Amino acid sequence: MRKQIAAANWKMNLTYQQAEKLFDELLATPHQLKQDQLAIFAVPFPYLQLANERMSGRANVMVAAQNCSNKRSGAYTGEVSVEMLNSMNIPCVIIGHSERREYFNESNQLLAEKIDICLETGIQPIFCCGEPLDIREAGTQNVFVGKQLEESLFHLSAEQLQHIVIAYEPIWAIGTGKTASADQAQEMHAFIRSHLSAKFGDSIAENISILYGGSVKGNNAAELFSRRDVDGGLVGGASLDAAEFVKIINALK
Ligand code: PEP
Q1: 184-217 confidence digits (pLDDT tens)
Q2: Nearest Cα to 163, choosing from 111, 209, 94, 128?
């Protein structure tokens, strides 16, 4: 059975002291994570150790990085390698967030390199995909997202694909307060699953968690997550508020 996941993406927010306070608040707010559910906290690099300390020993909770280098090691000032993350016991990393694609020119091919290094190292990638507004308005979102999947993931073996989590994040819904409707999310998630199924087979595709991201809040999470192919959310803004994020965790099916 595939996992239902609430993943927090703090982006480049919070000072160290604010991060400590948010962890205190999160730990003090009751949440119910069932056996097949997972909460993931993707925090800025300097807070990974803190996140590991605060979350250690908590069942069904994982710490993630928000990015990693496509190079293994060497003279790449300012970059953070997958091996570094692994050596800090960080089990998961977000790959290809639309902000990385847009502001740092990350291409599908470069993301494929990052995915390969993660899988070789045993780190789970959360692979982000999603279309901009003009593509949605032209009605060609399936072709656009299909190409993102093909160019970054279709070189993998079925065995490798099993270790990937996918986050569908329509760019027009990220940080805009404009959420895709549950029907729009379901439609795209079903397309993603069928596209994966055509390449990797039904049983592999059925077991991949596909998260929705784009203005998920405490008051819309349950409706979005109720759909068959929506296996939770990748959450930006609302993950910076403990009560709000715990509502989202509690909305997982
Ligand atoms: C995100 O950061 O991936 C995201 C979906 O942001 P928000 O929830 O703020 O739209």
Answers
A1: 999 999 999 999 999 999 999 999 999 999 999 9
A2: 209
Supply the DSSP symbol for 170: -
For ligand 1, mutation pick of 169, 211, 219, 247 (most atoms within 8 Å of CB): 169
Q: Which two tokens stand for residue 85?
A: 């993350």
**Residue 143, C-beta contacts closer than 8 angstroms, at least 6 positions apart:** none
Per-residue pLDDT reduced to its tens digit, 153-170: 999 999 999 999 999 999
**Global pTM value:** 0.96
Q: Which of 163-177 are b and which e, b meaning 16 or more Cβ less than 10 Å from the residue's Cβ?
A: ebbbbbbbbbbbeee
Q: What are phi and psi of 7, to 5 degrees?
A: -110, 125
CB 175 within 8 A of CB 237: yes
3-state secondary structure of 110: helix
Q: Which residue ranges form the domains of the chain, and what is each CATH number?
A: 4-250 (3.20.20.70)
**Which of 170, 39, 37, 31 minimizes the C-alpha distance to 98?**
170
Q: Is the CB of 209 under 6 A from ligand 1?
A: no
CB 125 within 8 A of CB 114: yes
